[in-house]
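Q: How do we represent a protein-ligand complex in a form that can be generated token by token?
A: Start from the inputs.
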Amino acid sequence: MEKLFVIANWKSNPPTLQEARHIFNSVKKGLKNKKNIEVVICPPFVYLSIVKSQLLNVKLGAQDCFWEEKGAYTGEIPALMLKNMGAEYVILGHSERRKYQRETDEMISKKIKAALKAGLKVILCVDNISQIKKDLKSLVKKELANLIIAYEPLFAVGTGNPCSVEEAKKMKKNIKKFLGENFFILYGGSVSSQNARSYIKEAGFSGLLVGGASLNPKEFIDILATLQ
Ligand code: PGA
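Then emit the structure tokens for the protein with 2-phosphoglycolic acid bound:
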């Protein structure tokens, strides 16, 4: 069976370290025998180190990074710093950052370059092909080996209104047509244990980016279980 990726995006949750530990430990316990699934937990920056100290069968990811390696950039977290902290993945171009932080494609493109250079695997979130074109404009094919695309239609992110499997499948096909058959394409947007399996088995995605549902350990474990 082909390897699948399931990315947990905790966004700006939970409010306490105690709750973060609880979610993480519960998820870890439920993860036995999921050998064909690469589970990546992306907590807020401040919880990266506690999650890292307990990693066993999951990988660690961040939700953003900065393009400079170091320097006077108050509040920014460089890609290299994340890599040195033990992160293997970084989510970039998330629609919430495009909206609330006014991230432009130019900024996202610089972040992708820096993250790949630092040795991180990039999960690039996009709503359409035009974003892929702009975000990857300055990269050459061979730089893209560690790039995964997450198709996240805007209307589906955080709304409880998931994309239909047929629509998602169409978009996956278009992205593969544009980028190449070998790319891993994930689906994200209101994923739950009710719909997770159909994006993989019917639409043929290589995995899922799970937001809200990843904060509920039981629901998250149920999602993984439906993919077996
Ligand atoms: P959601 O978020 O699963 O809550 O819709 C998806 C995401 O984080 O991109």
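The chain is about 35% helix and 15% strand. Residues 9, 94, 152, 157-158, 188-191, 209-213 surround 2-phosphoglycolic acid (CB under 6 Å).
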